[in-house]
Design brief:
This protein is mostly beta strands. The chain is 14% helix and 49% strand. The protein has one helix and ten strands; from the N terminus they run H-E-E-E-E-E-E-E-E-E-E. Strand 9 (126-136) and strand 10 (141-152) form a beta hairpin.
Length: 153
């Protein structure tokens, strides 16, 4: 009886190790961030072609084991994105993100512009970013949604 129990425990341990090993990321598995890494140049924003010489130029680099840094979209500098929990793509870790830009409303009040709800997905050599910019003062608020298409440089 004791021999069978040992064999069953040994089989259970081996099965657990096999399952854990098959679920773990292999060294030769591609990193989903690889398609995002590099320099990207704005092609269109909300369907309007970018003006030559005034295009957004973004640099995306790896940080940590699953996150990336995006630099070039806002004056405040780089911010971090992480994988979307359901589906594909990446999203900004913390929103709103202060952009470092001030907005002057028609009534003379001022508000800081924030970057909100950023998500991004790569397909081939094209990066699609969806985000909003908004500003709020004591008396006014404004915001606009954007869909920006960028190509890899």
């Amino acid at each position: 009886m004791l021999g069978r129990l040992h064999i069953l425990l040994l089989l259970a341990a081996c099965l657990t190790l096999l399952l854990a090993g098959s679920c773990a990321k292999k060294n030769n598995d591609p990193d989903p961030r690889d398609g995002y890494i590099g320099t990207w140049v704005e092609k269109t924003t909300n369907g309007v072609p970018a003006r030559a010489g005034l295009e957004d130029v973004l640099t995306i680099s790896k940080t940590g084991t699953t996150t990336m840094s995006v630099d070039g979209l806002i004056r405040a500098g780089a911010f971090t994105v992480s994988p979307v929990s359901a589906g594909s793509g990446y999203k900004a870790d913390n929103t709103p993100i202060t952009s470092g830009t001030e907005f002057l409303f028609l009534d003379g009040s001022k508000g800081n512009v924030t970057l909100d709800k950023l998500t991004m997905v790569v397909s081939g050599d094209q990066l699609t970013m969806t985000y909003s910019f908004s500003a709020k003062s004591a008396t006014q608020n404004a915001g606009e949604d954007y869909v920006e298409i960028l190509t890899k440089r």
